[in-house]
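[job 4471] stage=fold_predict status=RUNNING
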Amino acid sequence: MKKILLIGLLLLTSACQLPKSAPTAEPLPTQTPLPPPTATQPAATFPPTETATPAPTSTPEPPPLYYVDEFDSQSPYWEFLQAGGADAPQTSVQNGALRADFSSPDAWFVGVNSAHSYADVVLRAKTRIAVGGSVGLICRYSAAGWYEFDAASDGSYGIYYAQWLADGVVKYVPILNGNSSKINAAENEIGLTCVGERIQVYANGEIIRNIDATNYGLEEGAIGIAAAAFANVPAEALFDWFQVGAE
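[job 4471] inference complete, writing structure tokens
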């Protein structure tokens, strides 16, 4: 699976580069000024102009601590951030799925849900990916970094410690990479469990790996998703639902 990694002191960063005859005036018609008011012709009076007050807007109530997002509508608690590639993927909610469309190769993004912060959490998602792409889940997202599990259409997967270096620049430290026959080419139900210092990753109901992440020290944070497109573009990734639960 193609991914930008940091091994040891070597940083591979990927910064997004976002692309960055006159009409002839006609004279105004002249107007004859009105005569000033007289004693028998009082000046017209008008009520004071009322300033329209905009209707107050409010953020919807956050979902409960444990829930399933079926992407029937766009939630204000999701934030989508470009993590690499020349062009940012376009995200939208369509037909009961969260969709990311990629127009440039070697591009990826993370989606962070800030409704709640979790120390221990169990994440599941039903996903669909284009050939040559990957989808993933995120736990303990904070300024200190996050854990990310990515599954690619070729059956490869990775577990990473990731951290922002700057806008659009992420360093990925590989905790574990591998291949699994449990990962399908297009449609998968993937899972990520972060409990204590233990990280478990799943594909289609089967556990792939169980690892100890003590050395990375992340304790709590937001949750989220990830997706990437590699050589084949245009490409898309879809999340049919996203589940947050407890062990």
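[job 4471] summary: Residues 73-245 form a domain with the Jelly Rolls fold (CATH 2.60.120.560).
[job 4471] exit 0
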